[in-house]
Structures
1.
Amino acid sequence: MEELLNTTAADVTQLKYALDTFYFLVCGALVMWMAAGFAMLESGLVRAKNTTEILTKNVALYAVSCIMYLVCGYAIMYGGEYLLSGITGDGFTGAEEPATYAPSADFFFQVVFVATAMSIVSGAVAERMKLWAFLAFAIVMTGFIYPMEGSWTWGGNAVFGMYTLGDLGFSDFAGSGIVHMAGAAAALAGVLVLGARKGKYTKEGGVNAIPGANLPLATLGTFILWLGWFGFNGGSVLATSDVANSNAVAVVFMNTNAAAAGGVVAALIVARLLFGKADLTMALNGALAGLVAITAEPSTPSALQATLFGAIGGVLVVFSILTLDKMKIDDPVGAISVHGVVGLLGLLLVPLTNDGAAFSGQIIGALTIFGWVFGTSLVTWFIIKAVIGVRVTEEEEYEGVDISECGMEAYPEFTSAK
Amino acid sequence: MKMVSAVIKPFKLDDVREALSEIGVQGITVTEVKGFGRQKGHTELYRGAEYVVDFLPKVRVDAAVSSDIVDQVVEAISSAAQTGKIGDGKIFVTSIEQVVRIRTGETGTEAL
């Protein structure tokens, strides 16, 4: 009888390991799908002549992120060996401290977050950056810049041995700061080095609209991101195999969805009041702003609080986009506003519902992440600019980077076989 | 024989077609066109910034008719296409030197 109980207990533990691993992998796959969301959103918000290049950038940056995080990023962020040596091992049987899920599942879940951070950059620098300059930056960002700040936050290491963010009351559940604001900081540095698209700002200080080519794609991309975010936030609970964790997962899903909804409605209303018309692109940015705002802490707010937090993000993002335009910081898709400004908001909202976090800790954490990512990115962009240049020529920009960088149009017409 | 070319608002096309059928016009040619008039297009907002739509979409209806019904045709198009608002369009009437029906070789008013 005792033997039977022992076997059953061991089976249950194994089952929990299997279930948590499975949950983690499915969530990782959902987050991977966010790469598709970013690709569609960005290709919808740029002009048709830059479609092929933005798609190339998105698929290539995803691949570069995966390889760089495998080569050195994961080791820098969480310890362990370069090239993931040994990670395929069993985290359970015979392990000194049995893990609750497979170590390689952890890598898979983390690697898709890196790709998300890098995707944020591609939209902001769209329509004028050289493809290979962007990919060169992606190598540094995903192999070094992001893993360093990740090691200080989720990795738990001290910042250059000086202070430990966790001890100061810093808390970022799924990465409003660590992933989104970090991506936006790198994007901002890139945009400052790169300059605005030709024709975006007039000499008299006016702002010209450059409408996106395909709003159905931008909308599809937003829905895909919204879906992927359930993996992004939901998976960050890290387990689902007992009552407490599965309740937490359900709350996170509920709040993530509520925040996005609040963001859409708020942004739509603000756009209607400011412009007199319902601006779809602002509503889409509002959805993403709601999602970013809740990402730092989706597990402790009530559903109403989550909706309101999302709505604050939705209002903030519209004003942020307009302000950046006044400052002549040209961001075709609004990535710096959505992920950076609202990412910061997300961090600052955490202490309202989570007693374990402190405002001071959130501010120090935000400054640490932004300072590090922005500073190192700026240096990296300048080095790339000096070596190969970051911007296409004026003529290439006019013709569209599809032709100059990829040699093919997204929608070719009047062509014939040779 | 006259060529009546009317540039009208696209949503009025069906009304104009019906009005022309009623007075016995046998055929029309319709083209989607773009252009501007005294308003010089209009401005729209995208993400809070203005952009100018220089050319507005219009439909051009061409009807070749005999000279004795040309006034009726112009009147039919005018009343069918009018909304009283800016951008209702214009009607141009020109003379036609010759018309040939390709299938039969008929010419002149026989071919209309």
Note: The first strand of chain B starts at residue 2 and ends at 8.
2.
Amino acid sequence: MNELKHLKHLSAVKANTGIKFLTPAASPGSHCPMRMASVIVENVRGLSSLLVGMPECATHSRLFNPKPEGNHGELHWLYVLDSHEVVFGCREGLMAALREMDKAGAKAILMIVTCVPELIGEDMEGILHEVQPELSARVTFVTLAQFKNVSYPPGLWRTMEAVGTLMNDGETDASRINVLGRAPEEDHIPLPSLLPALMQRGLALRYLAPGASLQDFLNAPDAALNLVVSPFMQPLAVKMNQEFGVPYIALNNHYDVESIDRAYEDIANLFGFSWGNAFAEERQKALALEEQAQEQFSGLRYILSPRIDMPVALAVYLAGLGMEPLLLHLEDCYPEDRTHVKRLISLGYDPLVCRMVNAAADVPLLATLKPDICFGYLPAAKTIPCVPDMFDFYGQIGYDRTSNLLSRSLGVLDDRGLSAKKRRSRHGAAPV
Amino acid sequence: MGLHRFKPLPSGRMGILWTLATIRDAALIEFGCMGHMLYSGVTLKRAGVYDACRLYSTHIDETDIALGSTKRLNDTIAAVSRRDKPRVIFLLPSSIPEVIGTDIFALCEELQPAYPDVRLLPFGFGGFDVSQHRGVQEALLLLAEALPLSISRTPQPTFNIIGSCADLFRFQADAGELVRIIKGALGMKPLCVLTSDTAVTDIENLGGAHINLVIRREGELAAKHLREHFGTPYLAGRPYGIDGTISWLEDIAQISGLTANAAFLNAERELARQQLSSAMPSFRHIVHAHPEEAVLSLGGHTDVVRGILSFGCGELALVKGSCWCDCPDMGDADIPYFSEDEWTKVLQDHKKGYLMASGEALAWAGRNLELQISNPDTKWRLHPYEPPLVGFRGAVQLAKLWINENAGGL
């Protein structure tokens, strides 16, 4: 197909630059990583921020972090480069700005560095090295130029990594678990059943995500385990493992019942207890749905569109159910994607990958692939059955997430008359 | 520029974008990272701009930067011209091409022959020391220079409005009131409302108007060009207050050689006075007995500030407080430019009276957001049906806001 010949197959993509736009002319395009960093800093109690960039970045960041001061003394200020600084650098100005924020009472400052300061090669580490000894506030930075980080995910995981650089080493509390990716006061994402089950076994959970306090982040290395429930927190877990030796178990990538069994078992072994029948009912439900899905999904060809947390991990799971990936929209190349890519290829699938940045132009092109189903956000694509709102599963883990995903997908197939039973009745009996 | 607590002065690039983004039958392509255009689009939608210029970004990555590649721009122009078939494609560099020195003008010249049905119109003034107002000015001028066709004046009297752009607070409602009162008082129809309510064809017909009405000083260069090219006279000013509006309409009548419709003017004046009548004793009492509560402080575009000040202090005898403008190039002794350190102090010190400024400033200070007269905005507008601040209806609206402020919301 001529319009797709510029795309690469998954096996050929080694970095973000290998993910080509499905069609040119971004409209509206992908979110800037600066957006996510701005959202995060507004929601970490005690953390101040300094956005460094041009008037556009400074202005647009106020869409996401509108107030210059937070409720607990945080400062969210902006540093805008002038024409002189674009040429000669903003070292002096930035150091003066940090001194001023320090004087104004900032406790810790995250500098969010956008395109132009990164393009001109401003040495942020050098600036910090020079100015930090003068300051009471601890300062760190995250570089988020969109010309390097095409979409929003690095704005989340790199920002969380940067917050990690502020952490203090501490004595390990054998009964403490950090839950990476869930806020302490979470009222939107259902509570995964694993978490109260851990508390019932005497373990203390510390929730770390936007919504937590800086102090909780600073104390995090004292935990005996990092439990990852969001893909955006996994790089921080890896970093904490390297820096502080805190082991981690990532649950967000496990969809199939067997993998979930193993991950839950690993947790139990680490703390020396047995789950018994704690999850028997939900596990049984997930198993039954998996069997049903295996029967109904097998042989279906699908595409993954935007707004899916970990598309390659999902593709691996769907491959296990006998589904064939035609094309995957990848928002970002996560470090941990390499494992999932290898796994998918080993299962015999090497789909095209792309970045969808113009739904109006992309949808007709996707239709020419004649997928049976699409997972993700696909506006105005009436001809392609779609499992929408995949972000609903963000922060969810375990057997329940698998059941919910499968129920929703089976429902879509049934509504569109695509279930195996209906396909058979449409085309005659399947051969035995 | 340096350290800011609030939104900084927007760049020239942003001024150009806000000026062009409302033009129908056109597309706008920004050569740069796509986040810029995504959030500009969000801002425009919040301001009530829809179904206008199609907004696109090429995006740009580190390989493009390292190799100086402009292939994405070529591809985007090709895709947009094929799919949308716009009359004109505006091309705008973002900050990165400005740093690496991409010559967008040369590129357009090179590509134009391949697109005989689409005009490629590049815009510059993306430099790092160019502010929003200069961007608006240059965009209006380039539109007036590049697109108008050589046409004769319309048989019936017509007018253009120059300078109604999406960066001004309540720009659509204000333009609507101007069109209404000119039609009523002078029987003139608008040819082009540049740029808040216009299509490419309307801009091509700019030269047919009998008068150009420049409602912000950034439009004056464009008006001068049109005067030179088509001989069209222009009037610069924004009509505020009852007397101010009548005077403005009479000026238009005089320049256009028309006679204003006395019946319309009288009816509008009487209606506005009747609507104000119940509040006037209160205003007189406040000015006489509580002059500190009659202080009018204003911050925003200099032409808006001057206009509202002339109505408040000239027609209602309010007392001028601290007044400032939002552009360093436009400040003078009467209405100086205030940096954020200066205007935040005004907001903190302003204890009594009326304080009208940007939504961002009022929200920060915990003041009455109804008294917003300038941007940055903090609200979603979505539609153009809010009351205007100019014209007869604007006069009553302003008085309503002030009297309610005195009443403390009771």
Note: The CA atoms of residues 189 and 395 of chain A lie 7 Å apart.
